[in-house]
Amino acid sequence: MSSFDRSVSGAQAKPAAPRYRTMEQTLLVMSRTLGAPVEYELRSANISKSGILMENKSGKRVPFNVNTLLEMTIDPEGHWLQRPIQCVGKVVRLASAESGTTQYGVKIVQIDGSENTVWEACFQLLEKNASHLLMTGKASDALKALPQSHD
Fold it and tell me: Do 71 and 44 touch, CB atoms closer than 8 A?
């Protein structure tokens, strides 16, 4: 057996990253290229623990490409997230929505301590409330069961 045969037969597939449940949620996401002063207002189409699918509904050009690092502030606008959180994301895909808007699939690559605690807590609450729906409705239907915060 040649050395090539040994290296191929001994190769192992890299385990896939865990895939988290996505939930249809509309949140305001203020985003900018890492270190740049100009912010862009985008809206989430759906969210998961590991990322956000954002849409550019304004029609204005947004200079984000695959592999662009973004500073993001996710604002719940008084909904289910306790407070706005900040994180760093990486654009992992671009797509066109049925509506013709551009979508940006963004993986959260850095979220610090208390920010992560808030993000994780909101998903636990959403998942807990979604579980009573027996997965027959959309996960976003769980929001109807959430107490509304009035800060």
Answer: no
DSSP letter assigned to residue 23: B
Query: Which residues on adjacent β-strands are paired with residue 131?
Result: none
Q: Domains of the chain (ranges plus CATH)?
A: 19-145 (2.40.10.220)
To the nearest 10°, report the CA torsion of 94, 17, 109, 100: 20
State pTM to two decimals: 0.71
Q: Residues 52-92: pLDDT tens digits? A: 999 988 888 899 999 999 999 988 776 667 788 999 999 99
Residue length of the chain: 151
What H or E segment, with its residue span, contains residue 125?
A: helix 113-131
Residue type (1 letter), 27 = L
Q: List, in sequence order, every beta strand (DSSP E) within the chain.
A: 28-33, 40-48, 51-56, 69-75, 85-96, 102-110
- β partners of residue 28: 43, 75
Q: Which amino acid is at 74?
A: I
- Give the separation between CA 132 and CA 116, rounded to whole angstroms: 25
Backbone torsions φ then ψ of 94, nearest 5 degrees: -120, 145
